[in-house]
Amino acid sequence: MTLVQKNKAIFLDRDGNVIHDKGAIISNEQVVFYEGVFESLKKLQDAGYLLFMISNQMCIATGDATIAEVDAVNDYIDCVLKEHDIVIKDWYICPHHPDDNCLCRKPKKYFIDKAVAEYNLDLSKSFIIGDHPSDVKTAEFNSMTGLYVLTGHGAKHLDLLDANELVFHNINTATQWILKHPNSIADLEAEIVEGVERLKAGEAVALPTETVYGLGADAFNVDAVKKIFTIKGRPMNNPLIVHVANYEQVKYLTAEIPDVAKKLMDAFWPGPLTIILPKLDIVPDFVTANNPTVAIRMPNNRWALKLIADADTPLAAPSANAFGCTSPTTAEHVENQLQNKCFVIDGGASRVGVESTVITLTEDIPKILRFGGITQEQIAEIIGRVTSGENKVHRNFESPGMLAGHYAPNTQLVICEDVEQIKKDFNSNDYAIMLLQDDKGIRVKNKIILSSEGNLVEAAVNLYSSMRYLDTLNCKKIVTHKFPNYGLGLAINDRLKRAETGSKK
Ligand code: TXA
Ligand code: MG
Predict the structure, then answer these.
(1) pTM metric for this prediction
(2) Which of 21, 72, 308, 389 could form a disulfide with 15 if both were Cys (CB 3.0 to 4.6 A apart)?
(3) Contact of 306 with 243, CB cutoff 8 Å
(4) pLDDT tens figures, 191-208
(5) What is the Cα–Cα distance from 229 to 238, expressed in whole angstroms?
(6) pLDDT tens digits, one per residue of 293-342
(7) Which of 355, 367, 402, 464 to mutate to test the pocket of ligand 1 (most atoms within 8 A of CB)?
């Protein structure tokens, strides 16, 4: 008997993933491919993956498009892909409405079963890439790996996505991850095993968290922690956040958890809130920069939690960027910036996108020292009164997130009062423009919109990667505007201000 080797496949969602999501697309002129998508699909095909398109086209059921119109557009997309030597093996289109209870709508198995039968697929080596939680659900129901992208509706629906899912900025970064992890989660698990070994051997390891990537080391091993500073090129008098995987590990760091802290932990842990509490003597002074307090956080990322739990020690970890530069929200950002100086665990993109909120409970009224992923409004809802401002109690306090110049790109960044000022002073191709929402009046070549609907949560997810991208374009300046001063806007404005100061030449 000869064994026929099974095929591995990639199921692609069409809208918001391969082409821009524009609602019902009924003519070829509406089709806009994402930048880099041809190169990515070609790479996947060359790596031996069969490519399929799997798409819910509810617009047919709602009457916004006819089957013939959708078919014609798909034929056109197929042709364009063929011109780039990319073959879509089959197109699987569900024309139904969710209320129809059809068999073929994602996340149901119908089309995947069909593909398996017809193309002899090994689903354990196959992936779905898509911008809707139902795409990763489809993967889960079929023992595949689902990769969630932030393009299309991805950023908007993030709150519906389980915290454990792998998230990517776009199809290109998802592709890179697949090529690096052909055995999918098993390969990521192997990275964790290696990370744990290295941490135990006193090395620093870069790890994904929901806020930004961190550069972690055993918090109780001062020599290991010193390596973080060397790798980052960061002055040694800055206190670090200590990351824990569970409440047991909190007990190694602080003696007593006051009620306010308990309430905050219950509400926001694991998550982007760092709490400053009095430290135990055993916590090295080096980690806290001789402060009598320690900053503690439990990150909401499956891989970070596994790494910390398996290393069996809290990890001191600042953001994994070179000192003063933009924080990394992908493994690739870390690799580019720290240049092979450390082992990096690649868990996809950070899904919050700005650092944790730092709150101190060592003053009379709880005080936010750094705005971040949990908003002041969210905190006030749990504990009532909360202020914000500078840290008064601690000694030796020059913490990096609080430095005036930080998070800075190489290109000079300018913050305008509002979009009107950009229109007046910077409406030219000399500048790279970063806007919260689109404004048709700004017609420049390099324009990035952080959220089509002006949503600050979405804007935060895209902030640092957009700044990095704009920084590669060699424009005269990166120009943006003040963001709304509430919710995540406070954290975004804070980072922009520091980036502006830090980027002044
Ligand atoms: O989201 C985050 O917090 C990321 C990820 C990796 O977890 N980490 C991070 O670390 O941003 P880093 O080192 O870039 O920022 C540490 C911040 C400082 O800005 C400072 O405000 C605060 O933590 N911090 C640390 N120890 C402190 C202490 N003992 N007292 C007051 N603030 C402290
Ligand atoms: Mg989609």
Answers:
(1) 0.94
(2) 21
(3) no
(4) 999 999 999 999 999 999
(5) 9
(6) 999 999 999 999 999 999 999 999 999 998 878 899 999 999 998 988 99
(7) 355
As a whole number, mean pLDDT of residues 152-181 equals 96
Q: Write the DSSP string, 225-283.
A: HHHHHHHHT--TT---EEE-SSHHHHTTT-S---HHHHHHHHHH-SSSEEEEEEPPTTS
| Helix pair angle (488-503, 456-471), 10° resolution | 20
Q: Using the Cα atoms of residue 80, residue 83, residue 84 and residue 88 in order, give the sign of their dihedral.
A: positive
Say how many Å lie between the CA of residue 379 and the centre of ligand 2: 34
CATH classification for the domain delimited by 187-401, as one of 3.90.870.10, 3.40.50.1240, 1.10.533.10, 3.30.1340.30: 3.90.870.10
Distance of CA 437 from the midpoint of ligand 1 (Å): 30
Query: Do the two domains 8-182 and 412-503 of this chain adopt the same fold?
Result: yes
- Identify the bridge partners of residue 145 per DSSP, sorted by sequence position: 127
- What does the alpha-carbon distance between residue 61 and residue 97 come to, in Å, rounded to a whole number? 5
Closest-CA residue, ligand 1 atom 23, reads 241
Residues with CB under 5 A from ligand 2 (ion): 13, 15-16, 131, 152
Span from the CA of 504 to the centroid of ligand 2 (angstroms): 40
Element (H, E) at 384: none
CATH fold of 412-503, please?
Rossmann fold (3.40.50)
Q: CB within 6 Å of ligand 1 — which residues?
A: 209, 211-212, 214, 239-241, 272, 274, 276, 288, 291, 293-295, 297, 299, 317-319, 355-356, 358, 360, 369-370, 391, 394, 399-402
Ligand approaching nearest to the C-alpha of 494: 1
CATH fold of the domain at 8-182: Rossmann fold (3.40.50)
Nearest CA to ligand 1 atom 13: 318
